[in-house]
Amino acid sequence: MTYSGRVTVGGPADVHELKDLMITKIAVGPMDNNAYLLRCRATDEQLLIDAANDADTLLGTIGDDGLASVVTTHRHPDHWQALAAVVEATGARTYAGREDAEGIPVPTDVLVDDGDVIRVGQVELTARHLVGHTPGSIALIYDDPHGHPHVFTGDCLFPGGVGNTHKDPKAFASLMHDVETKIFDVLPDETWVYPGHGDDTTLGAERPHLPEWRARGW
């Protein structure tokens, strides 16, 4: 089956099989959050991005092989409703952006700064700090040595625009600047984008619309 990135709450997960990494996308909770389970194919170590909701669903997806780490992309409650239960069940290490950790009610084991590397088995993910949706939102970039990059953007980048900045011009300007300089300016059009809600996209599909996003202010 070809990966589409289209998932619905209560429906099956979708699996993106790369040479070194398996990415399982599943939708959970009343706000249709996406959670992503990353599995290193060499070591079978697993990392979860956003234990958003439905702990039983997430633990069923994780399975019997355990979970090494959970990365929370930002402090908003819809992205950590299942975090306590998942950590209790698995003993996973917790990661979050330094500026957002205080807003997450589960202790953060590793505070993440811009440019930090987070590993899942032999796979490396580079964290980029994107300020505007929250003070400490992070995206994770996997630069696949066998293909194009993949970026997990939380609520900072979606098909059709950047994340909600609540009509705050300064926050919007900050988020646009960071998304442009740390994502669009350094990654190719083929880069696959995995957002915190909804369907996936690519940087190439979104790049032509950057000027109109700036002009509209959201």
Automatic annotation (TrEMBL):
Signal peptide: none annotated. It holds the Pfam family Lactamase_B. Residues 32-197 form the Metallo-beta-lactamase domain. InterPro entries: MBL_Glyoxalase_II, Metallo-B-lactamas, RibonucZ/Hydroxyglut_hydro. It comes from the Bacteria. This is MBL fold metallo-hydrolase. It comes from Streptomyces composti.
